[in-house]
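Appendix C: a fully annotated inverse folding record. The material below is reproduced so that readers can follow the format used throughout the book. The structure is listed first as tokens, followed by the designed sequence.
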């Protein structure tokens, strides 16, 4: 009986240790830096910060302080800034912090409707940001670059043809979507210099190579790149394993 109790206690301690590790991992702050050369003889550099799937997390000021040292030209928030139960005040604070490091652009994710898309629109207006709904806008001080955003179908119709038309006139283009499946559909019409997406959480909890979704990645093909992020926050459970949280700075040389 004593051996059984010791074995049970060992299992309990191991489980608690693992849960503590998974919780701590889910709340790490990682900024990955990537580089893209979109022309063979670049004369300009554009620093893009991309963060997606914040969900329930609060962005710490120390992360913002680090990003302020990097001369960010555009902040792209790739959807799911919150989910049901997240107070509007937390969204406001997170967006205010992000807007303090550079011009901010938002695309809707599938969970945003749980806190009310009208609330997110209001917050973005307060911080001077732009919400891209199947539309394209320019980046301050980089007029050759446009950011095209597709909304998530949970928030309305995804009109790829409309988005492609809105991107005409730009020599260079960043495509921002929440669900990476729309990248391929957009690329049937136009090839962006950089595509960014989130949504998958990298599987969030993985067993070795196995997960509900593929791990996030940054891939370059010639002078183009695609970034699928593991995301910053978590959903359903505040735990991660095998899929570290992340946000990104992409240095685009053009």
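Designed amino acids, in order:
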């Amino acid at each position: 009986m004593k051996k059984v109790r010791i074995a049970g206690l060992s299992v309990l301690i191991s489980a608690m240790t693992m849960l503590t590790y998974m919780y701590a991992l889910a709340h790490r702050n990682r900024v990955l830096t990537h580089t893209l050369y979109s022309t063979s003889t670049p004369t300009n550099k554009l620093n893009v910060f991309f963060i997606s799937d914040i969900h329930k997390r609060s962005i710490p000021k120390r992360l913002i302080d680090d990003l302020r040292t990097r001369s960010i030209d555009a902040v792209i928030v790739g959807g799911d800034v919150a989910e049901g139960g997240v107070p509007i005040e937390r969204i406001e604070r997170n967006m205010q912090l992000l807007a303090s490091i550079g011009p901010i652009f938002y695309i809707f994710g599938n969970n945003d409707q749980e806190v009310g898309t009208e609330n997110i629109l209001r917050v973005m207006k307060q911080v001077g940001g732009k919400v891209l709904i199947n539309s394209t806008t320019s980046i301050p001080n980089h007029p050759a670059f446009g950011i095209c955003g597709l909304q998530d179908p949970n928030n309305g119709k995804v009109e790829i043809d409309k988005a492609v038309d809105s991107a005409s006139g730009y020599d260079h283009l960043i495509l921002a979507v929440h669900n990476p499946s729309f990248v391929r559909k957009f690329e049937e019409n136009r090839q962006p210099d950089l595509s960014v997406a989130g949504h998958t959480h990298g599987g969030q909890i993985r067993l070795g190579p196995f997960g509900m979704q593929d791990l996030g990645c940054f891939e370059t093909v010639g002078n183009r790149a695609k970034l699928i992020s593991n995301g910053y926050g978590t959903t359903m459970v505040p735990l991660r394993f095998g899929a570290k949280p992340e946000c990104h700075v992409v240095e685009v040389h053009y």
